[in-house]
Specification:
By secondary structure, this protein is of the alpha/beta class. It has helices spanning 3-20, 22-26, 41-49, 80-83, 104-110, 114-121, and strands spanning 32-35, 55-59, 75-77, 92-97, 122-130, 139-141, 154-158. Strands 3-2-1-4-5-7-6 form a 7-stranded mixed sheet, sandwiched between helices. The protein is globular. The structure holds S-adenosylmethionine. Residues 36, 38-42, 59-61, 63, 79-81, 98-99 line the site of S-adenosylmethionine.
Length: 159
């Protein structure tokens, strides 16, 4: 599989997973957190699917398209490991994690702090959709949509 094929499959999985959890997330109170604003594509998708919901986006730098840049109060610039800490206890309905790099060694470092931080951001029963596998006793795996291959994206509920 070429990197282009792999990218398309990952993007398709990402969209399908975000669509799949819509009802569950709408049933919960609390904001949506986007870890990894990037170009703002998934931010825009979340905004379209959860109208009226506060969406707070995090990134180390603002590189989003003008049309997909959150208002300043919902845009947190900095290293997520530190910049998201003050949001612990915010009781997010959904945390979308899109900060994987495709480099195993870099992602391994991220995974030393990401699962614990994600749990701290979530409401009980809150949902995490993640491009990286998160291992934490308070995160219970949820089934993926039938068309998303296991391991391509990850879905959890905070217990
Ligand atoms: N979700 C985005 C979209 O749909 O356009 C793509 C996100 S891109 C794959 C990953 C982003 O996460 C990059 O913009 C990068 O700067 C940011 N990022 C990765 N690790 C980070 C960290 N530890 N702290 C802050 N930002 C980080």
């Amino acid at each position: 599989m070429s990197r282009l094929d792999s990218f398309i499959r990952r993007m398709t999985a990402q969209r399908d997973v975000l669509n799949h959890i819509g009802e569950r997330v709408r049933a919960l109170d609390g904001p949506v957190l986007e870890l990894g604003l990037g170009n703002g594509r998934t931010f825009d998708h979340l905004r379209a699917h959860f109208p009226g919901r506060r969406i707070i986006a995090f990134d180390r730098a603002v590189g989003s398209h003008k049309s997909s840049t959150p208002e300043p109060e919902n845009l947190i610039v900095g290293e997520i490991r530190e910049s998201a800490k003050p949001f612990a206890g915010i009781n997010a309905a959904l945390v979308h994690v899109d900060i994987g790099t495709g480099y195993e060694e870099k992602d391994a470092i991220t995974l030393t702090w990401l699962p614990q931080l994600t749990v701290a951001l979530l409401a009980p029963n809150g949902i995490v959709a993640s491009g990286l596998e998160l291992d934490h006793p308070q995160l219970e795996s949820l089934p993926l949509p039938h068309n998303v291959k296991k391991g391509r994206y990850f879905l959890y509920r905070r217990v």
